[in-house]
Write a structure and sequence with these properties.
The chain is α/β, with parallel strands linked by helices and about 325 residues long. The protein is built from 12 helices and 12 strands. Bound molecules: glyoxylic acid.
Length: about 325
């Protein structure tokens, strides 16, 4: 069994592969592989650990239909044509659960940073603007008792709700396909429609997957329905908001601020106007970027490959229907 890994990953997953006697190659050049390069590498391997946004589409899967597994080292898999992989009977793995707390921490951090204009204030100091103390300048807003709206109450949304409920006694509402009775009981939360979520949230935090249904959900019409005092947070995927509309919404005062760990496109261009807005905080897609979480993600990806090596089912699978 030979595995191709599209970036250098954390040591715990590597150790598991070594212990299992599986040979592997990590792509360590700090540039994206083109899809043609990835295809030609994969021809010589049995399995792929995909890290980042490798394009695992119909073209790739058809060319690499010999792969015994594609183990995505991420929870999101919007870069993969899962239906096509299922047709070809290629199991697709991901890394759910282990990154929920770290990602919710980033959503919480962004919420706080926006509410107190922290990133902007920090940048101002280095420009030498820390001068005369004005009691009515640099004012932010407080979060205690405000309403948090969660768009997509999965594991990460649950963790964000927990933080906001316990830290600030925030009222929790959520918009999700299914009800979550556990979250309703734990946080006295209430399921609402998308319109109600827009109208009632003081902080609206996105935690859903990027799918054809969620793509561009936060456009100018949505921002127009939000409170003028509200904060928009996205730590899920940049494609879920329309960035041009978000800029207009902020410039025209439709919403108060925004915190983004995901942008559209990524990386964000350094001249993007969002980077200089006082009520905006941007991070470079670091939701899961802790030592502990990246190690756990590498472990889950390795476990998925090892399962295939042992002719077992993937423990963390996206398309279990291939086993039917
Ligand atoms: C990160 O964005 C992930 O999907 O794990």
């Amino acid at each position: 069994m030979k595995v191709f890994i599209t970036r250098a990953i954390s040591p715990e997953g590597i150790q598991l592969l070594q212990n299992a006697g599986i040979s592997f190659t990590q792509w360590t050049e700090k540039r994206e592989l083109t899809q043609d390069e990835l295809i030609s590498f994969c021809k010589n391997y049995d399995a792929l650990i995909s890290v980042g946004q490798d394009k695992i589409d119909k073209k790739f899967l058809t060319a690499c239909s010999h792969l015994k597994v594609v183990a995505q080292m991420a929870v999101g898999f919007d870069n993969i044509d899962v239906a096509e992989a299922t047709k070809l009977k290629i199991p697709i793995g991901n890394t759910p659960g282990v990154l929920s707390a770290a990602t919710a921490d980033i959503a919480f951090l962004l919420m706080l940073a926006v509410s107190r204009k922290a990133f902007f204030q920090y940048k101002s100091i280095s420009k030498g603007t820390w001068g005369y103390y004005e009691p009515t300048a640099n004012l932010g807003i407080e979060l205690h008792g405000k309403t948090l709206g969660i768009f997509g109450l999965g594991k990460i949304g649950f963790e964000m709700a927990a933080r906001c409920y316990h830290a600030y006694n925030m009222k929790i509402i959520y918009c999700n396909r299914n009800s979550n009775p556990f979250a309703e009981e734990k946080f006295e939360s209430k399921k609402v429609s998308f319109e109600e979520l827009l109208e009632q949230s003081d902080v609206l935090s996105v935690h859903t997957a990027l799918t054809p249904e969620t793509k561009g959900s936060f456009n100018i019409d949505a921002f127009r329905q939000m409170k003028k005092t509200s904060i928009f947070i996205n730590t899920a995927r940049g494609g879920i908001h329309n960035e041009t509309d978000l800029i207009t919404a902020l410039q025209d005062g439709m919403i108060l601020g925004a915190g983004l760990d995901v942008t559209n496109p990524e990386p964000m261009h350094p001249d993007n106007v969002l980077l200089n807005m006082p009520n905006v905080a941007i991070l470079p897609h670091i939701g899961s970027a802790t030592e502990e979480t990246r190690n756990a993600m590498s472990r889950l990806a390795a476990e998925n490959v090892i399962a295939v090596y042992k002719k077992e089912k993937l423990p963390h699978i996206v398309n279990p229907e291939i086993y039917k």
